[in-house]
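Handout, page 2. Input:
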Amino acid sequence: MHATLPALIDSDFPGLRRAQLQTLQVNLGYLCNQSCLHCHVNAGPKRTEIMAADTVADVLHFLARHRLRTLDLTGGAPELNPHFRRLVLAARELGIEVIDRCNLTVLFEPGQQQTAGFLAENMVKVVASMPCYLKDNVDAQRGGGVFEHSLRALQLLNAHGYGIPGSGLELELVYNPQGATLPPPQQALECTYREHLDRHYGIVFTRLLTLTNMPINRFGSTLVSRGEFGRYLQLLKQAYQDSNLPAVMCRSLLSIDWQGYVYDCDFNQMLGLPAQLDGRPRTHISALDADSLEGCHIRVADHCYACTAGQGSSCGGALES
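Output:
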């Protein structure tokens, strides 16, 4: 695995400061039933990092004190954490919106047969990985057979009401480019997804999110191996849009790793760049005061250009539709 941080850290990316905290994004561990080419987490079946019960309790204590708008659960496959349901139930009791970033195929893993129903019962928003609407493209990125299992999972979620207008159950699909290119316009691609999945498989969904691939970890290492890293980084810089800066997700989101440490975003977490708050080298969520965050500096490096290139990119999709 090629390290990409040395090529990113000396950056001319504009300085950023935090706005009001609205979303806590919690990585429940790097364990996953898949090993996707574009995965910036390097998640996979052999990863052992997983959030423990005590850290989950720290997260819940923080949420109870600060009552944020959204709890965004990610991984790996967050559903594989044994405390996933406890966290969802407690957050929903607090009136907090919960997002499950689901790879879809996990719904057919042992012990997960009731997960779709649990998500629907608790009105959890599902943000599902679906990097293309064509079989060959999906299987090339995510492994043989993943496309068919993903379709089955989407049909299962539809059967529980997800994506059905008026149900209140939101199902968002996530597109990633296959290679070192920017995603196409989100709105137009959503129309193509919607028409194809409905016509051929009877699948409906709420919205499509387009994400730009980050030049870090597994995808970044692949770029280095192919001699494409510098060219891709230059593409991101040339496509930089200053108008995207106010809407980047790190201004209103904090990322928490499986051990409970705080990062400005999920990508900084994967690069090992903790949030630097009050002059401390790193902060644990048990010692975090959300009320003191507004106005704090955000750590930036050249990978941040992926969030501000073209139409922009964030965990909520394009910044400019």
